[in-house]
Amino acid sequence: MQTDVLIIGNSAAGLSAAETIRKYDFDKKITIVSKESGPAYSRVLLPYVLRGKLDYDNLFIRDGNYYIENNFYYIEGLIVSVNTESKTAVCESSEIIKYDSLLIATGSNPVKPPIPGIESEGVYHMWTKDDLDHLMPHFNKDKRVVVIGSGFVSLQAAWSAVCKGLKVTVIELADRIMPSVIDNKGAEILTGKIKECGVDLRIDTLTLAIKKRDDGTFVIDLKDQSSIEADFIIVGTGVKPNTSFLEETDIDIDRGICVNRYMQTSVDDVYAAGDVAGGPTAFGDQHQIHALWPTAIEMGKVAGMNILGKQFVYEGSLNMNVTQMYDMTVASMGQFTDNLDCDEHLMPESSGMGYLKICAKDDQIIGACLIGKTSAMKIFGMLRPVIRLNKKLKVDITRLESDLQKLTYGVAH
Amino acid sequence: MKTVSIDRSKCVGCRNCEMACAFARTGTTCESQESNIKVNHYLDERVLMPMTCLHCSEAWCMSVCPAGAISRNADTNAVVIDEDRCAGCKMCMLACPFGNIHFDNEKLVSRKCDLCDGAPKCVEHCIAGALKYEDMNDNAAALRCKNDHKLIAQAL
Fold first, then answer.
1. Which fold has domain A327-409?
2. Which helix (H) or strand (E) holds A254?
3. CB < 8 Å to A293, chain B
4. Looking at CA atoms only, how far is residue B56 from chain A in angstroms?
5. What is the pTM of this model?
6. Which ipTM was obtained for this model?
């Protein structure tokens, strides 16, 4: 078959691009290929469904008529190879799709750490709807779960288990939790909260092997510690971009697909967006993979605009994370880690916001992280354009919210 | 399409809008922390500034909501949150450059101005004429809109 635009991927980046194109052009033939069955759903919602905050049906973020109403041609299937010379993609079913423009929005897949026994049945990730379907029957009171890894996804999975009354152990190889999302102090505070919630959280712990017993339960062997038992296991140790089907192409890949400010790859008429792509950041990095929902939405929009020929330049991605877990709001944005050469401003306790750190350099805010209250979130929202546009603001932490409002609303000093 | 216009030079800081909004939302309280409109005071600049959702034409909160919970009401043009779909993840609060999305700590969902389905109570109870519910085509609203867009353009 022939299509004007072929989009491989049916999540944040792919749909954002498809909708952007459709906004300006109702006739262009857009084909969306999804390797997963069923309508589009939101990965971000998986832990919220697991812990019962959301109904399962709310996982689906577009309604049943979406593809027809938007005139999208939708195919369920796996693309196994792409030929950028003949501008064709081959499906697992051997069907060949010829395209004018290609958008690769294939996302990422969980990394499997090299632990013997990790392939056993009963060892899951929490990354896809299938994973959720497998996990839900296990989420019963008093079941024992071991979560390997302590990143954003793992800790949300563990929190869902806590909410459902499971006995939860979290194992982290490194000497602290969540290295890419919060700073050391934040990690320390959150660690305390996680333990208060009854989680057996072990840092500096190497998993040696996963052994499955005949009765279906597991024994997890740990280095220099006694083994622990579990009814099932969740592994969350990061993700890697889905690029294997591109091996025979000339598309530049450096872990992720390298894209420029137009979301163009190194090959003409081939674009990439979302978790699979490494693109420019607000801080001047060339090819950074964020694997974050907001970045995927932005990249998809930029790709869509440029597929339309509109010469739309991406201002660069700004990393941002937020979730509610262990009765805390956990959020971060931009640059906030401990090794930076910058001024750190801590919100005083009297603000009631919790632990909020603002990082600034030469009167420019470059990032923030929070383990605290929702009331701090407005600061994050207003910070986004301030960081992106390099707006000058001398940080007086006690007046920060008010100063940000004045800057945002143009109230003269 | 009508929207709430704000003339900050007329605001007297009575906070009636906050109370009216809180009561319209809850039916039980006028406490301003329950309101979706906030009056900010900047004493040094001698400025009073009511702040409420601008219902941006390119609403970033709506694009970024990972739950598909934010949509535009076809009748009022308001950007609205479906609290049954809202996961409470706060991504919209991270997205709003104006700090105009609030959080309901009881229901654990985000909340914001929905223009009271076309009859905004904040406007009804404004004693100073600072808030008006006006057609976009009217001069004042158009000017406000222009200013908002300038702000939005700067912010995004």
1. Enolase-like; domain 1 (3.30.390)
2. strand A253-254
3. 64, 66, 91
4. 14
5. 0.94
6. 0.93
